[in-house]
Amino acid sequence: MSTPPQQPSEEEMRAAYEQEIKRLRVEDVLVQTLVSLINLGGRKAGLAEGTEDEQDPQQLKQAIDGAMALLPLVEPALGPDAVQVRNAVSQLQMAFTQLTGGAPAGQGGGEPPAGQPQQPQQPGAGQQPGQGQSSGRLWVPGQ
User: Fold this and answer.
1) Given this model, what pLDDT does residue 25 score?
2) Among the residues of 2-142, which ranges form H helices?
3) Which among 30, 86, 98, 143 would be 20 to 30 A from 75, CA to CA?
């Protein structure tokens, strides 16, 4: 008969935890937090199948704001994956706008957040709204 595996002692667990902390880097935690915010934001937007009843615009806005704050800190570590992460945050912003009918989360009036590029204005900005703008549909260049 074999003996059941013995549970690690509290001392062994503490030593294993210390070893893990020694290996861990702050940027790893920041990237993981960013990914967690994006995933949770997707649920709060109701984007994933079966999460439609979890829609919560306030929680979604917090997830977007947190992701926008972390993104400049981790972009160098993300390398080429930064584009994919930015696209995911943009999807959350669009979902927030659709949920609330207001301005995109993470974007206030005035200047963009530090480190964010200035967005070019759409042609005809400040003029009468076109067909897509007055109907509430997304404006697509050339259409």
Assistant:
1) 93
2) 10-23, 26-45, 57-78, 82-100, 131-135
3) 98
